[in-house]
Amino acid sequence: MALKITSREVEGVAVLALEGRIVLGEESNALRENVKKLLAENKKDIVLTMDNVTYIDSAGLGTLVAAHHSARSQGAAL
């Protein structure tokens, strides 16, 4: 199952609901681009809901770690 990403805002917090697999390729790229877009929009609080994520490979884990570091370097929290 491909990664489905649903974006919304709750009380000033950007929420990305993730569903499916976070794996090397299109899925990791989509997550990276969504987080990058939110940071470019100067969103400082970002929450990833991952209760519907069924699998994460090492590339997906790397994407999550990189997103965290990117957010922190821009004064945001992921």
Question: What attributes does this structure have?
Answer:
78 residues, alpha+beta, 2 helices, single chain
Please describe what this structure looks like:
- It contains 2 helices and 3 strands.
- The chain is of the alpha+beta class and 78 residues long.
- Helix 1 runs parallel beside helix 2 (58-73).
Note the beta-strand portion: 35-45%
Distance between the termini: 25 Å
Please mark out the parts with pLDDT under 50 across 5 or more consecutive residues, or reply none.
none
Shape annotation: globular
Largest sheet: 3 strands, mixed
| E-strand count | 3
Q: Short description, anyone?
A:
This protein is of the alpha+beta class. It has two helices and three strands; from the N terminus they run ββαβα. Helices cover 40% and strands 36% of the residues.
Question: Would you spell out the secondary-structure blueprint of this structure?
Answer:
Blueprint: E1 4-10, E2 13-22, H1 26-40, E3 46-56, H2 58-73
Parallel strand pairs: 2-3
Antiparallel strand pairs: 1-2
Helix pairs in contact: 1-2
